[in-house]
Amino acid sequence: MSGTGLEFKNFKVQRPSFTVEVQDFKSDLHEAIELQAPSGFGKTSVIRAILGLDPHSGEVKLQGVRLLLLPVHKRKIGMVFQDQVLFTHMNALENAMSGLLLQGRSEEESEKLALEGLEKFGIRDRAFARVGELSGGERQRVAILRATLWKPNLLILDEPFQGLDQLNRQLIKDYMAQFLAEHPIPMIWVDHQADFEGLHLVGEQRFDELRQNERRVFNLTKSKKD
Amino acid sequence: MNLEIPKPIRYLVATLFLTAALFYPFYQMISIVPSLLKGREFVNVLLSREVCWLAWITFRSAFIALAITFGISFSLVALLSRTHVPLIRAMFETTWIVPGLLVALVVLGGQKHLGIIDRYGLHAIIIAWVIMGVPYLTLGWLRAIDDVDDREIDLYRTLGATKFKLFTGLLLRKSFPMVQSLMVHQFYWYLVSFSLVGVLGGGPPNETLEVAIYSAVHYDKVRTVEALCYAIWQIFLLAIVRGFLAWISVRAHLHKEDLFTEEWNSLGQHQRPTRKLKVLVIVSAVTAFLMIVFNPDVFDPVIQGVVLATASSGLSIGLSMFLMFFGIDGVARSLAWISPMIFSLAWWRAYALEIAPSPNREWMMAALVVAVQALLFLPWALRFLGPIYRRARGREIDAMRTLGAGRFKAWRRIEWPRVAPDTRFLFSVIWSFALSEVSTVILFSKGGFEPLGVWVQNQLLRFRIHEAWIGTFLIILLSILMIQSRRRKV
């Protein structure tokens, strides 16, 4: 499967104390892109700019559409933030449904899809648990469901395995593998513990296998302002 | 406080405090009930058309005011949420020190300007309540929205939420538990409002239960049974309000005691006195001085007001710290839900009537006024200080104790330096409230004692609007002086 996925040209994010530049490149439609940089380098700034939450200069296109022209809510980017951010006033099911509802799906359909997703993830019985009652792994599974169920055009995962045990990592990897096979979309994967010597994804074998020929590093250049 | 006060001592102190402040006065008040229960007279009065009508009018007026307050606040929040307009927020915060009597003057003046002949009545009271309530509710609501996690907002937007959906689907939903509790507090405040109703109602039938209780016992013909019936209805209404708050708190997993903290914390921000603030303080001081010089009538009320405010706010803060030191501050929070008038009446019955024949009556009565005011402000002081003190406690106290420090020394060296700026600031805020407080004084004194707040109310009741303006302006200037001079960088 091919086609233009994500395209960056002269993409630059300016902050009061520094500027982050992203190298020009085009990805395939179903390419996984690793965003590697050490802590404090500006990865979050780049992600926020792609999402439309912060301003940027230059161009970024998703499936040929210039994102700069679109407001945040029309960019169709599924995002999994660090630290398993969930809506604390909703239960697990409502969290998983929220993206579908905001995209205009009916309540019945959203609930059905969300329950199916929870079933796949093995947390169907936790559907009505409040956020505070969910474990870290359960939270992350709900966050991933929320980001993927509505079938966005781009998926950004910010350290999706941070703080998770092996079992939870495996569950998420299985789900992601199936999701990406069914819905080929570009994916940006942020890795805070990147090894600059290579393209390692230690311990992520199956995910790695899926993307082994389709993964590349997405380089950032940072310059400090005087 | 993590200072391991032995439980027997804590229980003893708590029991002594509760007995003196609450149980004995209320026992004295309730002890007169049997003598009043003659046949069906009491029940007849309690369920009489007049008494029930007044209870209904009180509830209805407070409810209407709350509904209007909610409507206006909702519109303001929709306009201002997630925007930071410091000027508007500063204006709203300023209402904390604006005395209710100023609002009464504004309402009366506004109605006169509009040519409204019948300026006194329930409508004037409701307008004044709304003027006082809107900034409070709006500010609290805006802060509740400010507290929504930015990450959740970003997430909601990336999922496809427009600005409207973001406001209705996330910000309103997340802030609503706090808004509900703010509204319950607002409703409580309307129910127990005294001076505004007294000044703007123009007397019966335009009054509420709180004022009716006072009217029934204070004038020449004391109507004890009526006062008791009004009090029972007032307690009933406040119990409903209290129950509703408890229900909300349990439902939303809110900590009741922390409901106000965020609002007050922003008041307690400590800034280095800037040049502008210094100029404000100097201008306020000079203006206040000149106003007193050119209006010598106000000199005595100012002195009495300042002395009373200093004594009652000092005692309130001192008691708060004492109760927190012993870890029994929870027992005093219950005072927040007793009507100030009923509480004052209980003290009046328990202590003031005993003091009345004493040759030192005036001084002892003044001391009682100070004590009652301090106790009325106590729950609010605890509500503000409690979370701050708890945050200030840490392992450092344990470390200090392992180094050989006693309980008091650990508190003095570790906790006090951290909480002192907030405590001093709270003193100044309570001081400004106490300066315009009137209900306790007019209940206990028979005209010999006329601090500034009471003086302004008396001028208003005599239609001496010019003098009332001078007194109100002085209250504001003195409050600015006290609060701004207490701001310090931590």
pLDDT < 50 runs, ≥5 residues of chain B: 255-272
Structural class of chain A: alpha/beta
Oligomer: heterodimer
What is the chain-wise order of helices and strands of chain A?
EEEEHEEEHHHEHEHEE
Instruction: Determine the number of helices of chain B (DSSP H or I, runs of at least 4 residues).
Output: 23
- The global form of chain B is globular
Helicity of chain B, in percent? over 70%
Assigned CATH class of the largest domain in chain B: Mainly Alpha
CATH topology tier name of the largest domain in chain A: Rossmann fold
- Counted up, domains of chain A total 2
CA-CA gap between termini of chain A: 46 Å
Largest two-chain interface: A-B, 25 and 17 residues
On the 0-100 scale, what is the average pLDDT of chain A? Answer: 77
Main pleated-sheet profile of chain B: none
By DSSP, the count of extended strands of chain A is 11
- The CATH architecture designation of the largest domain in chain B is Orthogonal Bundle
Radius of gyration of chain A: 17 Å
Q: What overall geometry of chain A do the principal axes of the alpha carbons give?
A: globular
Number of strands of chain B: 0
> What's the CATH architecture of the largest domain in chain A?
3-Layer(aba) Sandwich
Characterization of the model:
- The complex is a heterodimer of chains A (226) and B (490).
- Chain A folds into two domains: 1-76 and 153-226, P-loop containing nucleotide triphosphate hydrolases (Rossmann fold), CATH 3.40.50; 83-152.
- Chain A contains six helices and eleven strands.
- Chain A has helices spanning 43-51, 92-102, 107-120, 136-148, 166-182, 205-210; strands spanning 4-14, 18-22, 25-28, 32-36, 57-62, 65-66, 77-80, 154-158, 187-191, 215-218, 220-224.
- In chain A, the strands form two sheets. In chain A, strands 1, 2, 3, 5, 6 and 11 form a six-stranded antiparallel beta sheet that branches. A five-stranded parallel beta sheet of chain A has the order 7-8-9-4-10, with helices on both faces.
- The longest helix of chain A is centred in the C-terminal third of the chain and has 17 residues, at 166-182.
- The radius of gyration of chain A is 17 Å and the shape is globular.
- Chain B is 77% helix and 0% strand.
- Chain B has 490 residues and is mainly α.
- Chain B folds into two domains: 1-31 and 263-490, MetI-like fold; 33-254, MetI-like fold, CATH 1.10.3720.10.
- The model of chain B is unreliable at 255-272 (pLDDT under 50).
- Chain B has helices spanning 7-30, 33-36, 41-46, 49-80, 86-94, 100-113, 122-146, 150-158, 163-192, 195-201, 209-218, 224-252, 261-267, 275-294, 299-325, 330-333, 340-355, 361-392, 395-402, 407-435, 439-444, 452-461, 465-485.
- The A-B interface holds A 48, 51-53, 72-79, 81, 83, 85-89, 98-99, 102-103, 146, 150 and B 149, 151-152, 154-162, 165, 169-170, 173-174.
